[in-house]
Amino acid sequence: xxxxxxxxxxxxxxxxxxxxxxxxxxxxxxxxxxxxxxxxxxxxxxxxxxxxxxxxxxxxxxxxxxxxxxxxxxxxxxxxxxxxxxxxxxxxxxxxxxxxxxxxxxxxxxxxxxxxxxxxxxxxxxxxxxxxxxxxxxxxxxxxxxxxxxxxxxxxxxxxxxxxxxxxxxxxxxxxxxxxxxxxxxxxxxxxxxxx
Amino acid sequence: xxxxxxxxxxxxxxxxxxxxxxxxxxxxxxxxxxxxxxxxxxxxxxxxxxxxxxxxxxxxxxxxxxxxxxxxxxxxxxxxxxxxxxxxxxxxxxxxxxxxxxxxxxxxxxxxxxxxxxxxxxxxxxxxxxxxxxxxxxxxxxxxxxxxxxxxxxxxxxxxxxxxxxxxxxxxxxxxxxxxxxxxxxxxxxxxxxxx
Amino acid sequence: xxxxxxxxxxxxxxxxxxxxxxxxxxxxxxxxxxxxxxxxxxxxxxxxxxxxxxxxxxxxxxxxxxxxxxxxxxxxxxxxxxxxxxxxxxxxxxxxxxxxxxxxxxxxxxxxxxxxxxxxxxxxxxxxxxxxxxxxxxxxxxxxxxxxxxxxxxxxxxxxxxxxxxxxxxxxxxxxxxxxxxxxxxxxxxxxxxxxxxxxxxxxxxxxxxxxxxxxxxxxxxxxxxxxxxxxxxxxxxxxxxxxxxxxxxxxx
Amino acid sequence: xxxxxxxxxxxxxxxxxxxxxxxxxxxxxxxxxxxxxxxxxxxxxxxxxxxxxxxxxxxxxxxxxxxxxxxxxxxxxxxxxxxxxxxxxxxxxxxxxxxxxxxxxxxxxxxxxxxxxxxxxxxxxxxxxxxxxxxxxxxxxxxxxxxxxxxx
Amino acid sequence: xxxxxxxxxxxxxxxxxxxxxxxxxxxxxxxxxxxxxxxxxxxxxxxxxxxxxxxxxxxxxxxxxxxxxxxxxxxxxxxxxxxxxxxxxxxxxxxxxxxxxxxxxxxxxxxxxxxxxxxxxxxxxxxxxxxxxxxxxxxxxxxxxxxxxxxxxxxxxxxxxxxxxxxxxxxxxxxxxxxxxxxxxxxxxxxxxxxxxxxxxxxxxxxxxxxxxxxxxxxxxx
Amino acid sequence: xxxxxxxxxxxxxxxxxxxxxxxxxxxxxxxxxxxxxxxxxxxxxxxxxxxxxxxxxxxxxxxxxxxxxxxxxxxxxxxxxxxxxxxxxxxxxxxxxxxxxxxxxxxxxxxxxxxxxxxxxxxxxxxxxxxxxxxxxxxxxxxxxxxxxxxxxxxxxxxxxxxxxxxxxxxxxxxxxxxxxxxxxxxxxxxxxxxxxxxxxxxxxxxxxxxxxxxxxxxxxx
Lengths: 196, 196, 253, 152, 222, 222
Ligand code: HEM
Ligand SMILES: Nc1ncnc2c1ncn2[C@@H]1O[C@H](COP(=O)(O)OP(=O)(O)OP(=O)(O)O)[C@@H](O)[C@H]1O
Ligand SMILES: Nc1ncnc2c1ncn2[C@@H]1O[C@H](COP(=O)(O)OP(=O)(O)OP(=O)(O)O)[C@@H](O)[C@H]1O
Ligand SMILES: [Mg+2]
Ligand SMILES: [Mg+2]
What we know:
The complex is a heterohexamer, with two copies of chain A (about 200 residues), one copy of chain C (about 250 residues), one copy of chain D (about 150 residues) and two copies of chain E (about 220 residues). With about 200 residues, chain A is α/β, with parallel strands linked by helices. Chain A has helices at about 45-50, 80-90, 100-110, 125-135, 155-170; strands at about 5-15, 20-30, 35, 60-65, 65-70, 140-145, 175, 190. The mean pLDDT of chain A is about 90. Chain D is of the alpha+beta class and about 150 residues long. Chain D has a five-stranded mixed barrel. Chain D is elongated and about 85 Å long. Chain E is mainly alpha-helical. The two termini of chain E are about 30 Å apart. The longest helix of chain E is centred in the middle third of the chain and has 30 residues, at about 90-120. Chain E contains nine helices and no strands. Classes of the chains: A alpha/beta (about 200), C mainly alpha (about 250), D alpha+beta (about 150), E mainly alpha (about 220). The complex binds protoporphyrin IX containing FE, adenosine-5'-triphosphate (ATP) (2 copies) and magnesium ion (2 copies).
């Protein structure tokens, strides 16, 4: 699997009796970045969940490397302080990152000084930033991002681009559902076409 | 109140010991449209909730006309079919709109044929579209929109602009928090400045 | 080599609802006819011809309904547990359908066993109901069936509902040995087993033969019922596929 | 060890340990007697508490059943056939199976004089079924069935 | 459509969507009653004396369980905001919500009461009083409970806090409800306790909707 | 930090954040017990015979109430997805969750048992058996309950469905738990029921984490 980060063959999915997509093929090599586009309800989120292993009822095969998934639900506990959220995630993935490294990551996503603030007390965009800080904490080579720009200001959107660039520079691959322009020059595009 | 849709004087708000904004003045005349901008956590949502009457702990005074509020939570019941959601809202606001008119509104927001589908079965963007269909169902002259572009594809974003334009043409006013360009030519801007 | 290959092919075929739909027709009729015959003979024999018990008199004849229903209700649950395992491990569509199709039958058989037990208990024990281990664990079985039914109703997507029910069905199988051995492990008002695998039944043949017929009959009834329900479920779930459309078109041209 | 394999090992060890402890406990439990009722011996010997709801059981002693002709009152004696017996009073309809020599469970209270006031009388049937003729034939030399198994 | 009937229609549609919910408080009641009968292993004598208390306490608890969901869903999807902001008058819509809740908890449990009485050996003569008490008393449970549900709706896992808030307020209903049946069993012929239940229900009918509205406003501020 | 201890730390932090939740099942237990004492108006003799049943049934119900929140929060904020996807091995993290749940429901209720016994006039001599039964039996409640909670977490208002799924599986614990105390009160000296409780707890400890994981996977698919 050192060659391919993701290999999807003949992927198809039917939901509620409507076919969302069919016979989809996609391979991601190290460093690849693909934008997943399509109108509302065309199945972007579903596709990502199929790949992540959160939605098993698809046709075809999916072979994916170790991956990090950032979905519509950010995966941030409102009842925990910002730093603790990261700390738990680090332990979960088995990566032995020192606390100082976690704080650095918080600085990167613009949450310096918020270490001990409860996530419930953060605005929508700030919560998404906590989720961004998680990306790259573990060493998964494949990122699946579902509308990562949600609720972020322009500064935050630049941050996402920067994170993607950094990940690719280290040989990581990215598949990213978005309605906006991804703003990454050499990104491929997978369009799911018309809704329904 | 036929002159002014909204009159905010000396508005200030402190949350979690941090001052979000102070001495804010804003008046909206009929047909006015103001974009509310600012980085994540600068207090846009809070400001809108103050005006809507959902957050009472502010300084200064707010005088607002009858208003419609579209917040981060879309106000769409997942357990109801699309049409029933609108129907309930119509009854709630006391407007006697015939069902055909409701179906027309659904067509406008691109949900033709989805009348009897449960909202739980819709994608994120489709659910937001149901919320959009609600706007303009009642005759409130003031709209408060919190990031209305969330989860919408380009087509959906154009729809929001169109709805805003239609509302203004009828003498309505709009205050709209957003991170994107509002894309409305003559919109004013209220910037909440740097976070914290 | 060839044996494993045939087994593999067979296993693979079992996973195909279409294959099942096509071969199962004659089986359904066969089981239905057998069930009718066995149940008719067994019931008439048991209720009218078999001798009465020296202690209980005629109320003992409830045995011919009580025991078959009580036994089959447990078998159905075991089958669902097995189907659940197959579904979770091999993702076989047919297993999910079995899981869905068997619930109503199992539920009604459990209810019937409880009901006949209660009716029998009044004259024999002197109470409609007692809380002993056998009766209680049987009531738990009924609630497990309720739970399986409710869980399926509560989850909108068929596939997810099937897997959730599979987990519950598997967890619930621990109840079956409890039902079976409760009369040996604890002092129950319910009698211990009359029929044991290792000993002759403590009942003369003219009493247990009709019972045997009824037990076999109810198994055939279950098989016919299950196949019928499965076929309906298959048509419903596969309604989008070509073969079903062709089938329907072919039937009503 | 690679993490996948370590995980699998953890799981297996966990399962083994759990199964081991469970089996031990089952064996311990089966060793203890768990019958929640008092045999005649315990009632007579004063082990059964007086004045609270309990269950007791035994066989109906032949010739001890005394029915009141005007009401549903009935009294009888429960025995274990090895010397211990106690009187029971009850008012109500008896189960069909209630007869002399039958295993009976009574629910109620023991009073100070050692009389059991039953609020419920339950008959226990054993696993043997036979036609009346057969029963008559074997009646003479058969040992009394003991469905209560209280000596187990 | 008028607001009240529109709200009724909405609640009804939501309920058939989640039709298991109609059965659930009833199943809970039935299960819990069986648990009691099971745990005591008691004969008729023991259970009978306790039946009124057990039934009434469990009705309270079943009611409580179903209350948690009363506003939760609406809160989470944001329709509660709409209701509080836009309904004219909001208290009518809230009354409709509570009415539907009562129909599928209090009223339904009343219909189940004979079964409960059977399991617990409650004498048939005491059954009418049990049913009368339930019919008159359970609306108060839904109404008072709605206030608690409104206060706790914004909190995650508000369930147990809800219990804490609401149960003490349920006490009078419990005492009069169970008391009426016990008196009947003791042979005393009086409707006094039922009248008291009526007083509680009427008082909460008049006051609760406004308290609920105020509580919802507070919950939405968070 | 190892996964197990990190998960423990997280649950602990979340709990002190919502510290009312720690108190709530206990308060529920205490309140409901008082309701019983109130509703019967009974003296010591009546209550005593019923005390083991009341306490155990209410422990079951309190447990049930606290279960609903076990995974709900994590489900809603998306951390449950992360746990199932990334934890190595996930069952350890789940065990840690259940352990914390037990500490603040089962164990805490055990500590409260003497008070409950006092209110219901349970003889002091029966108290050790009550406590022993609770200590040995309540872990099974948390473990079995976790399976039900995992199955229903994706469903709105899953609470009552949870009751339907879980209560039947609680029955053996109830029988042995209450039975042990009743036997003790009747003067029978035996630990058999406690052993059976141990069997149930050990069996569920070994099997439940895997069932929970499978159930969570299904719930996340929706
Ligand atoms: C509501 C009460 C009752 C319930 C829930 C119940 C339940 C059951 C169950 C589950 C079985 C199947 C056992 C197995 O698979 O081996 C069974 C068998 C049987 N029951 Fe009942 N029963 C009840 C009442 C009675 C009564 C009152 C009698 C008669 C005195 C009775 C007589 C029998 C007999 C003869 C068998 C077959 C024994 C055997 O397994 O060899 N049952 N009952
Ligand atoms: N529920 C809450 N409890 C406590 N404090 C909060 C809460 N929500 C927001 N805050 C605080 O108020 C500040 C402003 O939040 P608000 O949601 O108004 O920001 P916003 O401008 O809408 O941000 P975004 O662009 O991310 O939506 C945040 O920085 C946070 O500190
Ligand atoms: N929870 C659900 N239950 C049933 N059907 C669903 C569910 N979520 C989505 N669907 C169906 O699947 C289709 C695709 O949904 P999905 O969320 O994958 O779309 P999407 O491309 O991510 O849309 P969006 O841009 O709005 O996020 C929808 O049109 C809807 O019909
Ligand atoms: Mg999406
Ligand atoms: Mg905001």
